[in-house]
Amino acid sequence: MADGDEDKDLFANSEFDDSVKCNWRFIATCCLFPLTNGFMNGYAWSGASLYFRSNSWSLAVLGLCSMAGFLIRVCAASLYFKLGFWLALPLALLHFGCLIPALLFPDNVVCICIQLAALSGLDMMLPNDSIVFYHYS
Prior knowledge:
137 residues, 6 helices
């Protein structure tokens, strides 16, 4: 055998299969879920600025809501890493609880700010992202 043939045989007998099987579950998990999550967050923030302007609220308050939400996000990511996936359900219920005042009082700036902070701070893609990031980076 030539040297090139021996190299091919070494790689042909590898016990690891590194090929990616492209099926609907893979496409949904890796493409559609993050895409829809990005669309929802993108529409929410562009709509929030228009909503604040239409109610004559200061955009500085929206900036503070955004900052608070991303500070919550950092804390939630570290909690997900330390405590695991089981924390996802209680924080999802907390996020839902933050939505209820905004639905009942859509003209109250405090209720809207709480919901916007929860939107970025308690994002449901965050448990998966944080655990994968901390374990594989």
